[in-house]
Amino acid sequence: MSEWVLLLGGSTGHGGATAKRLAKDGYGIIAFHFDRGDAKKIAEETISEVNELSNGRCHYFNTNAAAEETINEFLPKIKEITNGAKLKLLLHSIAFGTTTNFFGNKPVTQRQMDMTVHVMGNSILYWTQKLFSEKLLGKGSRVIGLTSEGNYLAMEGYGPVSVAKVAMEAVLRQIGWELGEHGITANAIQAGVTPTRALTKITDRWEDWVESTKSRNPMRRTTTPEDIAGTISMLLRPEADFINCSIIYCDGGEHRSGAI
Description:
By secondary structure, this protein is an alpha/beta fold. The chain contains 8 helices and 7 strands; from the N terminus they run βαβαβαβαβαβαααβ.
């Protein structure tokens, strides 16, 4: 296989697991991450494994993928890596935003809100626009973003991220609607509560969330990054060409159970 995928957030959590799975599937991996400190060490381990699984067809860039200058700077490099061929996938798996309440001791500020909605929501639109204009997306390409049940449930400290996820879902729906005639599909995958590093940043009660999820999930466990990676792998198959403008649930039925 000579096809390439582009992952925005491909070093840890869902993005890291997806990079490994798609490398095993034979795809070349182009990924962005923005890691420092201990997270950078984890990222380096992931990159090393992905590089081995992909037989060296792996390019990682440690920079802010949500910045306009990053998109403009790296588009020519992406085109060079793929030799101008269309990407099979653009995945948005960036988990960087403000987790706080709207009111209380530290209410979210406008700057924090704008940043969170841009990074975790709207940035997928700007990548898609540029990739499409450069003919790096075409028939059979997928645009996928990751969402959560926070898109319709109110949770402690999750307000800004919730708004970003809802925005991203709307963006994906519109992308799929406008680009469907070109054979490009856009969907969101709703993961269940997953014990990742990102979860620990949302609330100090994340361990309680995990235990509560295990009891309410019909399959009596939490979602894993590998669950999400497997779903993305399936969605890249030709049989999924007609799935568009949708939210795909990969949570064991968790969204049908009670709230956290």
